[in-house]
Amino acid sequence: MSKSAPRPGARDPYLVKSVVHSAQLLSAFRSSGEALPLREISARSGLPKSMTFRLLYTLERCGMLEKAGENLYRSHLRPFKQRPFRLGYAAQGTDYQFSKEVSTGLQRAAAAQGLELICVDNRYNAKIAQRNADVLVREKVDLVIEFQTDEHVAPIVASKYREAGIPMIALEIPHPGATYFGANNYEAGLIGGRHLGRIAKHQRYVEADEIILITLDRAGSLPRMRLTGMLVGMKETCPLLEQCKVTYLDGDGKLGESFEAVRRHLRGSRARRVLIGAINDPSALGALRAMQEAGRVETCAVMGQNASPEGRMELREPGTRLVGSVAYFPEKYGAEIVAVALDILNRRAVPPAVFVKHQLVTPENVDHIYPNDQLIQAFA
User: Fold this and answer.
1) For 45-101, what is each residue's pLDDT tens digit?
2) Which residues have CB under 8 Å from 173's CB, separation 6+?
3) Which alpha helices (DSSP H) does 268-360 contain, by range?
4) Half-sphere exposure (Cβ direction) of 8: Cα atoms closer than 13 Å
5) Facing residues of 145 across strands?
6) How many CA atoms are closer than 13 Å to the CA of 371, on its beta-carbon side?
7) CB 199 within 8 A of CB 363
8) Is the distance from CB of 263 to CB of 290 less than 8 angstroms?
9) What is the Cα–Cα distance from 95 to 319, expressed in whole angstroms?
10) 257: phi > 0 → left, psi -120 to 50 → alpha, else beta; which?
11) pTM, entire model
C-alpha cells in the first residue's frame, strides 16, 4: 500500500519550528553589516517581541550575530536572498500625460529597487478597473497601487483586495482601507485660487460677472476640494468677488468634454468678464478653447491644476489667458510611492495619507521650474 499524503493544513512532523523562527529572524537582515533594533527585527520577521528577544539572545550566544549597541544587533551571516516583492499597479489610463508620467516613474523606481511590477490599465473605465482588480488578486501580488478615478466603484475595488489580504495604496482618489497617496487637494486649490484672486484684483477683474469652476464629478468629494479651495482663495485675496455668480460645469477631467460644457454654457451667458478654475489642465485648456471660439478670451482668466506638459506649453504662449497651474510633479511620484509600499510591506508605520508638495507655475516662472521641457520636446 502506498503511503497516504498528508492532509491539507496538517502539521509537518519533520518541521522544527525553532529553526523556522530562527530563519525568519535572520532574514530580517537584508544587507551585510546592517544593524537593527529589536523592534525593527520583530516587525520585519513577523515574530512577537518576546520571542524575537529570546532568539536574538540564543543566536548571539551561538556566535551567529552580535550586539552592536545597547539595542542594536548585527548578523554575522551573509544575508539570505529573498524573493522580490511583487507589486500590482492598476494605471489610470494611457491617454493622459499625468497618468503616463506616474506610470513611467513607478516602473523606473520599481526596477531600481529590484521589485516585480505587474501592470494593468484601467483605461479610465470603472468596469475595467473592477476586472483588473480580479486579475491582480489572481496574480497574488504582495501589494496593489490603484489609480482609478470613479469614487462609486472605489469600495468594490477595495473590498476585492481586502478579502484577498492584499494591502493597497490609492492614488489621488481615496479607497476604503487604503493608504492615500497624492494631492493635498484643498491646499492645491488655495494656491491656485489666491493667484487667480490677485490677477482679478490687479487686472480689474473685480468686476467679474461670473466665476466658472470645471469639475470632475465622478471622482467624488475629495478632488472637488481643489475647487472649494480655489473659490476660497479667490475671495480671500479679492473680497469683492464675494458678490460674483459661481457656476459649476462637469468636464469629466477631459479637454473635449470641458470644451463642450463651457461652449454650451456660453450660448446662454451674458457674462462679460469671467474667472475660470479647473480641476486639471485638460479641463482648463478645454475651457480656454471654448472662450477663444466664442471670441471672449480677452475677458477671461483661467487657472489649471497639475502643471502637466500640455498646460506648461500653453503657459509659454505669448499673451495666454491661462494665468497659472498648480504643480503636482507626477514625474516624482514613482520613487515616493515605492518607498511607501516598502514601508507597508516591511510593517513600518505609515500615515493614512501621504501628500505630495505643490507649487504655483505661471508664465513668468515656468522655464525656471521646468527648464528641460523644450529640450525634451526637441528629442521627442
Assistant:
1) 889 999 999 999 999 999 999 998 888 999 988 876 667 899 999 999 877 788 999
2) 147, 148, 149, 150, 151, 154, 182, 219, 220, 222, 223
3) 281-293, 309-315, 333-345
4) 0
5) 89, 169
6) 1
7) no
8) yes
9) 28
10) alpha
11) 0.76
pLDDT band at 28 (very low <50, low <70, confident <90, very high): confident
In the predicted structure, residue 7 carries a pLDDT above the cut 70 = no
Which grid coordinates are listed for 105?
516613474
Residue 33 pLDDT exceeds 90: no
Q: Which amino acid is at 160?
A: K
CA dist., res. 252 & res. 130, Å (int): 20
Q: Which are the contacts of 274, defined by CB distance < 8 A and separation ≥ 6?
A: 208, 209, 210, 211, 212, 291, 296, 299, 300, 301
Which of these, 327, 322, 319, lies nearest to 370 by C-alpha position?
327
Spatial distance between the Cα atoms of 125 and 91, rounded to a whole number of angstroms: 11
Each residue's pLDDT tens digit, 344-359: 998 888 999 999 999 9
Decide: residue 10, CB within 10 A, 0-12 exposed, 13-18 middle, 19+ buried. Answer: exposed
Of the pLDDT bands very low, low, confident and very high (cuts 50, 70, 90), residue 37 is: very high
| SS3 of residue 249 by DSSP | strand
**Of 334, 263, 346, residue with least CA distance to 297:** 263
- The dihedral built from the CA positions of residue 221, 129, 157 and 104, taken in this order, carries a sign that is negative
Alpha-carbon distances, residue 327 vs 182, 184, 239, 309, 333 (angstroms): 12, 11, 26, 10, 12
Average pLDDT of the chain? 91
Q: What is the 3-state secondary structure (H, E, C) of 137-159?
A: HHCCCCEEEECCCCHHHHHHHHH
Tell me the C-alpha distance between 60 and 58, whole Å: 5
Identify the band that residue 6 occupies on the pLDDT scale cut at 50, 70 and 90: very low
The neighbouring-strand residues paired with 276 are 212, 302
Cα torsion through 109, 112, 114, 118, rounded to 10: 30
DSSP string, 84-131: PPEEEEEES-SS-HHHHHHHHHHHHHHHHTT-EEEEEE-TT-HHHHHH
